[in-house]
Design a protein that fits this description.
Shape: elongated
Number of strands: 0
Number of helices: 8
Structural class: mainly alpha
Distance between the termini: 14 Å
Number of domains: 2
Radius of gyration: 17 Å
Strand content: under 5%
Order of helices and strands: HHHHHHHH
């Protein structure tokens, strides 16, 4: 299984892709796409953002105001983007722990750090997004790091 790489190139790729895709469109559309990228970056970099309401508040917009441009420009809801970044963070925590060998705090601690109500909620999201349980992912990551 491939490791999840640094997320900065993904954000840059998203930005470049959106900008090139809409370069021939009107300036308002370009500005809207750039705003979506900026809001998505908030979800990526601010671990306290766990819900769409928090993202909307940080962006100075209503939930519905975020939903329309995300659906149009990203093809996914803001809640999907938030969940995806949280899962990437969880997977990265597992990878870092397997790299240094002694930094593993456990899935319950990771779930709490990322704003999940409990470990089971993290496990469901993890399985939905990565197709495997967190424990299996950690075991594979640890084996690959050996």
């Amino acid at each position: 299984m491939a490791k999840i790489d640094d997320t900065e190139p993904r954000t840059d790729a998203l930005r470049e892709g959106l900008e090139s895709l809409i370069a021939c469109r009107d300036p308002a559309m370009i500005a809207e796409a750039q705003e979506v990228v900026a809001v998505a970056a908030l979800a990526e970099h601010d671990r306290s953002v766990c819900r769409v309401e928090q993202l909307a508040s940080a962006a100075g917009a209503s939930v519905r105001t975020l939903q329309r441009p995300f659906d149009f420009h990203v093809g996914a809801s803001p809640s999907f983007v938030i969940r995806r970044w949280r899962i990437i963070e969880a997977a990265e925590a597992a990878r870092r722990a397997s790299d240094d060998g002694n930094g593993w705090r456990g899935w319950a601690a990771i779930a709490a750090e990322l704003g999940y109500s409990d470990q089971a909620h993290l496990t469901r999201d993890f399985r939905r997004h990565l197709g495997t349980s967190p424990s299996v992912y950690l075991a594979r990551t640890t084996r690959q790091g050996s």
